[in-house]
Design a protein that fits this description.
alpha+beta, Aspartate Aminotransferase, domain 2, Aspartate Aminotransferase, domain 1, 2 domains, 3-stranded mixed β-sheet, 9 strands, 18% strand, elongated
Length: 211
Amino acid sequence: MIDGAQAVPHTPLDMKDLDADFYAFSGHKMYGPTGVGVLYGKAALLQAMPPWQGGGDMIDTVRFSGTTFAEYPHKFEAGTPDIAGVVGLGAAIDFLQRFGLERIAAWEHGLIEETHRLLDHVEGLRPIGTAQKKTGVFSFVIEGVHAHDIGTLLDMEGIAVRTGHHCAQPLMHRFEISSTVRASYAMYNTFAEVAFFAEALQKTISMFRGA
């Protein structure tokens, strides 16, 4: 079971090549509505699984002696679905496909490379996560400075970052850190914004160093 919410809007995926039993992602990570998403599953597993709730349109026959269910995916879609959300998600998928995920991935990779070029030399800054093909995130810690303090001062510069454990406390434990700062890039970010972020971050670090 793979949580692919962070990958889907950033990189092309081949479900057959990935060979996951299940793959889930959310709409809002794809610039779509909140509260809607997709669960992909292998046909044999979906066929064998019982429905998780009852309701309209998920049954085949109903008798006092027993009930039979509709074929998948309908047996998992009890009641009136989030029609508006699904329509919005479809529009978001069309939006991404117009640009092409290969182009999006290449652009965001360039933004990440530029970020590393500008910041890897900064004393006390340690990037967290340096995979060659990682998606558009730059997570880091600053020696002797709490991530929340960095995030607060960057906010005052007009830069929005996330701070904390990012719903990944086991990973934080693995790296022996309590939290990180995470700058997230998307298809709409620019190299000028990368430069602005790097300049603001170095200014923030200098403040803490008393420079």
